[in-house]
């Protein structure tokens, strides 16, 4: 029989926890990996412009766009238009998002409320937002109210639908369990229904943010005096392609920034959910 070293012991659970765990490759490089494809596109775009594969009369070089952005930043014009567009987007998100969230909660919690209002909301939702522009101009003119209305209505529907269905799809067994434990309505909503609906609500918010920037581009072409859309339209009149491309890239960056912030809030708010805890 083989002798056992008296100093030997089997590893405990605490020992296993203290051992270093190799992280997957994509997590070790998560900081820069998302920028690999956009960076590669910019490099190929720049090279293609230099060797003549891409005409600068059609698409300016990224370096030229960067130089123009620096020039506009020095004059303060870039920050003016960027600030105006951001304020319009946040204003529309606050109005449309609040209304969509409130109505989604009301209809999700009350079958009567859903029966009364959901059909009307769905009918209006199926009208293309761009088709409303002539009517919006008649109602509100071409001032800030018209632009704010268009952005607000664009974010209203995604947040409403996802809030409504998020509340409706909460596991009924969890609700019954909460009632069995004697939870009040307020406690049941705050600890069971609302947390259960949060994943769907965040999906609606992220989708709404994408629509928000899309509609804002159109809204800022309606006789605006400032904003990224206005800057792009003015540049188009004078064939300043570098400014047009800069405006498009800024819209893309703003949209990505909004999505990153929302994603961070989502992971933080849903840390209790195993599907989000590992991110």
From TrEMBL:
Probably part of an ABC transporter complex. Probably responsible for the translocation of the substrate across the membrane. Belongs to the binding-protein-dependent transport system permease family. It comes from Paragemmobacter straminiformis. GO terms for biological process: alkanesulfonate transmembrane transport. Keywords: Cell membrane, Membrane, Transmembrane, Transmembrane helix, Transport. This is ABC transporter permease subunit. Pfam families: BPD_transp_1. InterPro entries: MetI-like (IPR000515), MetI-like_sf (IPR035906).
């Amino acid at each position: 029989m083989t002798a056992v070293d008296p100093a030997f012991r089997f590893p405990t659970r605490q020992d296993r926890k203290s051992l270093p765990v190799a992280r997957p490759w994509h997590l070790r490089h998560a900081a820069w990996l998302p920028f690999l494809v956009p960076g590669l596109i910019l490099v190929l775009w720049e090279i293609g412009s230099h060797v003549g594969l891409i005409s600068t009369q059609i698409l300016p070089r990224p370096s030229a766009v960067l130089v123009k952005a620096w020039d506009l930043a020095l004059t303060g014009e870039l920050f003016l238009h960027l600030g105006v567009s951001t304020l319009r987007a946040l204003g529309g998100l606050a109005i449309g998002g609040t209304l969509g969230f409130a109505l989604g909660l009301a209809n999700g919690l009350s079958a009567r409320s859903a029966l009364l209002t959901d059909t009307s909301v769905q009918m209006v939702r199926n009208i293309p937002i761009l088709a409303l522009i002539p009517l919006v101009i008649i109602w509100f003119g071409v001032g800030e109210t018209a632009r704010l209305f268009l952005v607000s209505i664009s974010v209203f529907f995604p947040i409403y639908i996802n809030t409504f269905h998020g509340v409706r799809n909460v596991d009924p067994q969890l609700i019954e369990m909460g009632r069995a434990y004697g939870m009040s309505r307020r406690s049941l909503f705050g600890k069971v229904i609302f947390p259960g609906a949060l994943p769907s609500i965040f999906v609606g918010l992220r989708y709404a943010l994408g629509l928000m920037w899309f509609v804002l581009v159109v809204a800022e072409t309606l006789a605006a005096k400032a904003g990224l859309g206005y800057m792009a339209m003015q540049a188009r009149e004078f064939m300043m392609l570098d400014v047009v491309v800069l405006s498009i890239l800024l819209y893309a960056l703003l949209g990505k920034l909004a999505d990153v912030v929302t994603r961070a809030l989502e992971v933080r708010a849903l840390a209790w959910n195993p599907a989000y805890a590992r991110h």
